Here is the input.
Amino acid sequence: MKTIFKLGLSLSCLLLLTACQTTTTPHKSETSVSQSSKKKSNEAIKQSSEKNQSSKKSMKNPKSNQARTSESSASQSEENDQKDYEALYADTLSKVAADDNNVSHYAFYDIDHNGSKELFTGTDVGSNIHPIALYYLKDNVSTYLAHSEVASGGGYRSSFEVNSDGTVTHVEWTSHQGKGNLKKLQLNPDNSGVTTIEEKAIIISSAEQKASMDDNPLDLSTLDWKGLAKATTTSSETKATESNSKIYTFDNLVGTWKNAKGDKITISSDKTVDLNGNQGQAGELSNTNHQWGTGVQPFGSRIGGYGIRYIPADETASNQDQSDKSKERLLIGQYDNSGNTDEYFYRVE
Here is the structure.
């Protein structure tokens, strides 16, 4: 009986052990499914990660494209910048082109670096462009600021320089005694006007006047000068232009000349010039806008330059020319004074 009991007990234990193994050990197919699910889950996570990375790159690319677009817009803005100032200064440029003067070029430059460019007008004096006038945008309206001038009669002189700090020094004086006035001007940052930061009486070329000038002014000859299209000429001017096909040289200027006012100018072959006792250095004779001329810079001074225009015999300076056209003549200054017969210089030596 004990034997039978032991055998039954052993058999019960065996069955119990088998049942436990069945419930705790996964089936092969279940293991395969679980591994497959994990594999798919991992692939899904990987794909999701790749999509996220791709999404991040796509988010970065628009910024890059936007940057490129911004650069392109900036470049386009720079290209249109010149056209904008052409429009803003259109009235002044039109008036200068229509007036009788020696203005042949113009340029834009932001002298005080406040984001608004000023307008310079100038004349070709052979090797350089000599500035004639300076304008700025006062509340977006072209407004006069300073100018250079050499009157052939009366002795009036005027000149200006742009200083390294963005201010402008404007000097006016008479050539007889050299007495004059010096102003240092500063544009308001908001272009609402001009402030005079210094004003005093000076003697031109004196130590005090020279000390008042900037040591390193802006070299205006290096600006991006552009040719100014002058107004349509009249029939008489056209005739003079068509006949003005001969080539002239500096030798045509050499000699002594006088006008009806008693002014005297002596021009030497080494290009030194003496105008009423004031000496200077001339440049080469060149043809600009069908006019032969050169510029003169006084010795010992950066200011006070002027132009000399040469009119050959049998040619007309303008439709206002009432001078003796049978002779060669000179006109001196920076503005067209061809309508005044007393301004013409005739050769005396």
Notes: The radius of gyration is 43 Å. The first strand starts at residue 105 and ends at 109. Residues 1-41, 54-63, 233-243 have pLDDT under 50 and may be disordered.
